[in-house]
Amino acid sequence: MEKTISVDAYIKKHIKHKDLLNRLRKIIQTTTLKETVKWGMPTYTYDNKNLLGIGAFKNHVGLWFFQGGLLNDRFNRLTNAQEGKTKAMRQMHFEKLDDLNEEILLEYIAQTIANHKKGLLIKPIRKTDKIILPNELVTLFEKNSKLEESFDQLTPGKKREYIEHITSAKRDLTKLKRLEKIIPLILENKGLYDKYKNC
After folding, report:
1. What share of the chain is helix, strand, coil (3-state, %, to 5)?
2. What is the pLDDT of residue 125?
3. What is the mean pLDDT of the chain?
4. Which domains does the chain have, with CATH numbers?
């Protein structure tokens, strides 16, 4: 199979969706995202991180948000390809030009870029990964049994989010600030990124 080497070539290959692909591309090009081709499809990056991808299918064009699980989907435009399995990626479907609302699309893209700049990330969770508490959390739980009980009630994914948040801090002061920030969230049985998903 011939490999697509440019976005123009990709669009030319999918002539049925040419107008929709071109319009989608023009809207994305008004943002700070950089256009490239990866896996044979148009991909849009920021700081060399993949944030968006476009895919043309038989009856629709899909716009993929690689970290779409963090987005506030207030317009109910995002779908999950495999509910219960896919954690991060979400997609929008467009069958015709009228399906494409530039203002709404730009809002989702702005959210995506803002979340990336904040360092927010949903990492794939392997079921075989053991949950190992960092010393900072162990010490905190020894002083606060209610906090430990609340933490134990969280899903494995939410537990790992908190653990990653603490262990990724390089300075002790940063770890301390992060610990102070997450205590009320854990006590409310919330995940670290829940506010970005449900606001």
Report:
1. 45, 15, 40
2. 55
3. 89
4. 7-117 (3.90.1150.200), 135-198 (no CATH)
